[in-house]
Amino acid sequence: MSEDRRLDVLRAIVEDYVATREPVGSRALVERHALGVSPATIRNDMAALEESGYIAQPHTSAGRVPTDKGYRLFVDRLTTVKPMSVPERRAIGAFLEEAQDLDDVVDRAVRLIAQLTQQVAVVQYPSLRRSALRHVELVPVGARHLLVVLITDTGRVEQRTIELGADLDEVVVGQLRARLNVSAAGRRLSELPVALAELADAFGPSDAALVEAVVGVVEETLAQESEERVVLAGTAYLARGGAVDFAGSIGPVLEALEEQVVLLRLLSEMAEDNASVAVRIGRETQHEGLLETSFITSGYGDENGTSVARVGSIGPLRMDYPGTMSAVRAVARYLTRILAG
Amino acid sequence: MSEDRRLDVLRAIVEDYVATREPVGSRALVERHALGVSPATIRNDMAALEESGYIAQPHTSAGRVPTDKGYRLFVDRLTTVKPMSVPERRAIGAFLEEAQDLDDVVDRAVRLIAQLTQQVAVVQYPSLRRSALRHVELVPVGARHLLVVLITDTGRVEQRTIELGADLDEVVVGQLRARLNVSAAGRRLSELPVALAELADAFGPSDAALVEAVVGVVEETLAQESEERVVLAGTAYLARGGAVDFAGSIGPVLEALEEQVVLLRLLSEMAEDNASVAVRIGRETQHEGLLETSFITSGYGDENGTSVARVGSIGPLRMDYPGTMSAVRAVARYLTRILAG
DNA sequence: GGTAGCACTCCCCCGGCACGAGTGCCAATC
DNA sequence: GATTGGCACTCGTGCCGGGGGAGTGCTACC
């Protein structure tokens, strides 16, 4: 029994099942694919594939359906990411380049992915922690409030207000601003604490409170997990065709998607994958509500390996893996290019 | 035939249908409510109510179901908004007061409403147009970029970057900042254009480009419709119990909710209602996807009449109107109090 | 190893039927 | 005139049984 053909059979099953949503039987398989053997032979192969856990029958005397494991083998070995067509690429680039600011870029990207994949799209805001600081601004607001504005190289702007015990000294604020920018600009936020630690020494004890407060706020801001935001679009695609793809309604899926924590965990796990495109299939998401979904993401935001955040698409197990992977990767690349420019 | 009893019957039908999701018949009605008459009498009343369009039968030989018009009469005349209990109020206040900044307030509010109403919650960010300006800041970023930061009295912070044709003159920027704050602070954004118009005259022609650019950006920012953001939570509630409440899947509803434009239109229309709580039932939403939903909102953000934005809850036609109305109103009031404080 | 045939299983669809809930109408009653 | 009880009628729903079809596993054969 040829090992190669067995993999061909698995690929054919995945492709047919994705296309038709129907369990696929041996006869249909030989009819639709040039396998060169008879249904009976295929049946033997299918029995072996089932034995190994790559496919399963919903019930006796039904066709076969890929399992999580089957999809995994499919994406790992049976498919090559097909590049997008030139017009598609051009459209993606043009659409994203029209964006005005970071919010707009993110918004366009998420809509674009939803549109391209016809699935739920996810875009993570550029992580503060992994961005480099471009500028720090201190803005007195009234006598006793100071607004701290951080601007990153990805265009993200964060601000915090500090309430002070004493009235502000404009001169000191000016000095602090200058110092901050010297020691901070161009650095990754993760390297900042070291640079900031010595800052306090440069000022007299009378200003210690101010310096401390500002430094504290800057560090706190970059450490704040909650500022890791994700944006969604296309949730309506989950309900397509009466939510046929989800046995137990789409409620749990929507719940999972609203839990930013869940998505952030997944995104950070997938960042470890070291692949241009990361895939989580069914159970691999490690989350109850996402058991019947697959999640495909790609990093963006830095030319070399380390990305500052991720974009992705979530759909039913029964999804177009090659298509989704290439769409997600394409958008991630354009994002990277735009944020760099 | 008593007109009063007929309204009682309508109320009973709405209440029963909301509670059971089953069309309600005459017998069930007399059993569950102390109407003091026989089923046959109720049948006559029901025939009259149907004649007037307040109720309808899904099919012959089924019970009655309220129509949009029936729900409308119910909320207008047959229900009084019951206040929330003291512990509930206390919990709401406590939860909202823990918030750190405006984003956090909005986030907490939207989750709170979703939780309280067990429906989709909507919170609109305080409108720029209707807020007052607290402070304008100009921040040079590099030699040729200027960051404009607007801070409103509701704590909202907006920023834009300007690219300039010539290098910046720090002194002029300083003067402009001072002037801007004098003429702008405390004003509603809608009154600003007038105040800004005369500003250009105070500077020499060499700085005209700069002044013009800054004024342009400020005006543009406040005019920008797209900056009217809304935040959602609880979309998973739509799918509760297999989306029984929505004949044609929840897809169209999700689509409508993702269209910020749709929600913003509705919110602004409802702001005209001059009621503490505004209600749109089914068709009244004027949107295809929301035909089978009702939308309840309340304004917040200003002690006297004019609110700066709205909060609301969207659920099936068959929803707990009194409960939702009181929850939405309560949250709106606490929001107002917190933003003022 | 591949193939053909065959018996078997099980889902799905359909028609028929009884049941129950609910109505509308009418005549009788207060 | 409003209310009521009775009654025939309608229609959706659940249940049952049977036919058709798709697909499988097994075995014997090339």
TrEMBL record, chains A, B:
Biological process according to GO: negative regulation of DNA-templated transcription
Gene3D superfamilies given in the database record: 3.30.450.40, Heat-inducible transcription repressor hrca homolog, domain 3 (3.30.390.60), Winged helix-like DNA-binding domain superfamily/Winged helix DNA-binding domain (1.10.10.10)
Residues of the HTH deoR-type domain: 34-60
Keyword terms of this UniProt record: Repressor, Stress response, Transcription, Transcription regulation
An example molecular function term from Gene Ontology annotations: DNA-binding transcription factor activity
Signal peptide: none
Segments forming domain Heat-inducible transcription repressor HrcA C-terminal: 103-325
Family indicated by similarity: Belongs to the HrcA family.
Function, in words: Negative regulator of class I heat shock genes (grpE-dnaK-dnaJ and groELS operons). Prevents heat-shock induction of these operons.
Protein known as: Heat-inducible transcription repressor HrcA
Organism taxonomic ancestry: Bacteria, Bacillati, Actinomycetota, Actinomycetes, Micrococcales
Gene: hrcA
